[in-house]
Automatic annotation (TrEMBL):
Belongs to the thymidine kinase family. Its EC number is 2.7.1.21. It comes from Streptomyces botrytidirepellens. It is an enzyme of class 2 (transferase). Substrate binds at V170, V171, V172, G173, Y184. The active site is at E87 (proton acceptor). Keywords: ATP-binding, DNA synthesis, Kinase, Nucleotide-binding, Transferase. This is Thymidine kinase. GO terms for biological process: DNA biosynthetic process; thymidine metabolic process. It catalyses: thymidine + ATP = dTMP + ADP + H(+). GO terms for molecular function: ATP binding; thymidine kinase activity. GO terms for cellular component: cytosol.
Amino acid sequence: MPELVFFSGTMDCGKSTLALQIEHNRSARGLQGMIYARDDRAGHGKLSSRLGLVTEAVEAVPDLDFYAHVVGVLTAGNRADYVIVDEAQFLTPLQIDQLARIVDDLGLDVFAFGITTDFRSKLFPGSQRLVELADRVEVLQVEALCWCGARATHNARTVGGEMVVEGAQVVVGDVNQSESEVGYEVLCRRHHRRRMTAAGARAASLSPDVLPVDSPAGPPTAP
């Protein structure tokens, strides 16, 4: 039976790599898919991973009707056996409904990839709708790590290395940006709650006032 599957995880956990792997495996068996992406790091109309893999994609602009677009492809005599959508958290709830309709009315598998919560740990509307409608929600098992080595569970937005918790929900950026730019960092829940980024942790470790401790007393002197 065709399914709507939501693959979720933090940034930097291999979602786009898995999307490209699914595309490779299915195309190697003679199947043809429709690939959509939104605000990819490689540019407009691309789906790429941090490992350097990239393929062409349809840019999932906010007013794109996924169902109508796939129907148009099919009625033009072209083939579509499945659909892949990357950065699905940026889609509108209506667009998620359109993906579900592709599964139910056209009988195609739809694989959606995205992060669940934003930099404030609030659900993206698109991700929320996917959780509500998906036949399966798969949490990726490749764990991104916080700077402390613990499993990263939250996405933090940074400006100048400092974590920020206000601003527009969607601001394009990436991990490993220079500290002068708007960037993102994955953190464990503890350090996300404490707003402690890697840059902040380095600054704290260099501060002589982090853990004030009295100097140990010298050895006792002989009477």
